[in-house]
Design a protein that fits this description.
Number of strands: 5
Strand order of the largest sheet: 1-2-3-5-4
Low-confidence stretches: none
Number of helices: 2
Mean pLDDT: 91
Structural class: alpha+beta
Radius of gyration: 13 Å
Order of helices and strands: HEEEHEE
Oligomer: single chain
């Protein structure tokens, strides 16, 4: 999965993928912590294209939480939610 993520990072974000580590804890999606060449860190979930509606709902929920949150809460900002080839992908700012 690293190569498709590296291609996505270069094409969508204009930087390189320095490190990609799987993150444990999910039972439905695969999760990744990405470190980018420009210093940013992302949290990315991947699954089959059929799961895109779940990612879209999650991205909408994150935006709603951020709109109503006070300044002390750190809510990840969705950066991308869509298809990458045959995979659904949800990328957000920050890392776990």
């Amino acid at each position: 999965m690293v190569e498709p993520l590296a291609s996505w990072v270069e094409r969508q974000l204009g930087t390189s993928l320095v490190r990609c580590q799987p993150v444990a804890g999910g039972c439905i999606h695969r999760a990744w912590s990405l470190e980018l060449g420009d210093g940013r860190r992302l949290f990315v979930k991947t699954n089959s294209a059929a799961m895109l509606p779940l990612f879209e709902a999650e991205a909408e929920g994150l935006r709603a939480l951020a709109a109503g949150a006070d300044a002390e809460l750190r809510i990840p900002a969705p950066l991308f939610c869509g298809l990458e080839g045959e995979r659904a992908l949800l990328a957000s700012s920050g890392s776990i």
